[in-house]
């Protein structure tokens, strides 16, 4: 009996072990199913969130563009597609950079004289580089010389200090989009505490050789309207924004430029 009883007990143990294994296996598969479901749900929620952000960004950009178009129309800016090629040639001659692969889109002009143009400039990079898009305003400017001059201004909210100095240093560095015939020149001591943070001009020249204090006082205010770069050559001047991150507030820029027009 002891042997039989022992054999019977062993069978019961095996049965218990088998039932336990089946239970644990089923629990493990249930856990795997729950984990898979959770992961799948997370992926689905992630895709939905991404699509929502894309749609929101698109709608936000469209709304901003519609508001901009309405503001431009209220200013009186009218489409002038016939000026597209001329604007591309004029802007390229002003910049005179190593990478003059420029395209002008959506050109508009204010009625009357002097001629004031608004357009979107697209600078195409080499190979697979992403294009750089900037809003710009072109207008004629009378000044002391016809030599090239590039100014960089900051918004008043950016206080004087390391960040402002870095902005000026980067903006006046030697990079492919810069004119090939200018170099960094000193900001005059009487302007070091203003919104003017960078100047580029002909080698050996000084800022006041090319422009007077009246125009400079106007240009220093453009940083508070989304402007960042002012390029001059010959009879023309271009005000450019800082890119997509900081839109150029065209009505404000034109209002600030009125004393020069």
Please explain how this structure is put together:
This protein is of the alpha+beta class. About 45% of the residues lie in helices and about 20% in strands. The termini are far apart. It has a nine-stranded antiparallel beta sheet, with helices on both faces. The chain has helices at about 1-75, 85-95, 160-170, 215-220, 250-255, and strands at about 80, 100-110, 115-125, 130-140, 150-155, 185, 195-200, 225-235, 235-240.
Our count of helices gives 5
Helix content: 40-55%
> What are the low-pLDDT stretches, counting only 5+ consecutive residues below 50?
1-8
**Strand line-up of the largest beta sheet:** 1-2-3-4-9-8-5-7-6
Proportion of strand residues: 15-25%
Give, in order, the helices and strands: HEHEEEEHEEHEEH
Structural class: alpha+beta
Work out the radius of gyration: 32 Å
Largest sheet: 9 strands, antiparallel
Q: How many DSSP-defined strands?
A: 9
Give the averaged pLDDT, no decimals. Answer: 83
The span between the termini is 117 Å
Coarse morphology: elongated
Jot down its keywords.
261 residues; alpha+beta; nine-stranded antiparallel beta sheet; disordered N terminus
Give the helices and strands, then pairings:
Blueprint: H1 2-75, E1 78-79, H2 84-95, E2 102-109, E3 117-123, E4 132-140, E5 149-153, H3 162-171, E6 183-184, E7 196-201, H4 213-219, E8 227-233, E9 236-241, H5 250-257
């Amino acid at each position: 009996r002891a042997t039989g009883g022992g054999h019977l007990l062993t069978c019961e143990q095996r049965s218990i072990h088998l039932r336990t294994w089946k239970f644990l296996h089923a629990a493990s598969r249930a856990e795997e199913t729950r984990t898979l479901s959770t992961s799948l749900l997370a992926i689905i929620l992630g895709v939905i969130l991404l699509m929502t952000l894309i749609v929101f960004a698109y709608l936000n950009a469209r709304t901003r563009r519609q508001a901009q178009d309405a503001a431009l129309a209220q200013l009186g800016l009218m489409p002038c597609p016939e000026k597209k090629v001329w604007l591309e040639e004029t802007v390229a001659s002003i910049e005179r950079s190593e990478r003059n692969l420029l395209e002008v889109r959506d050109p508009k002009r204010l009625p009357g004289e002097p001629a004031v143009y608004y357009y979107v400039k697209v600078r195409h990079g080499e190979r697979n580089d992403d294009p750089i898009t900037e809003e710009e305003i072109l207008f004629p400017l009378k000044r002391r010389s016809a030599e090239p001059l590039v100014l960089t201004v900051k918004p008043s909210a950016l206080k004087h200090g390391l960040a402002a100095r870095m902005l000026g240093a980067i903006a006046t560095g030697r990079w492919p989009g810069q004119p090939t015939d200018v170099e960094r020149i000193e900001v005059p001591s009487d302007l070091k505490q203003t919104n003017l943070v960078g100047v580029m001009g002909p080698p050996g020249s000084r800022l006041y050789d090319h422009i007077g204090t009246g125009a400079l006082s106007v240009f220093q205010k453009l940083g508070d309207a989304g402007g960042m770069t002012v390029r001059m050559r010959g009879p023309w001047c271009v005000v450019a924004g800082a890119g997509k991150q900081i839109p150029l507030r065209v009505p404000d820029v034109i209002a600030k430029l009125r004393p020069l027009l």
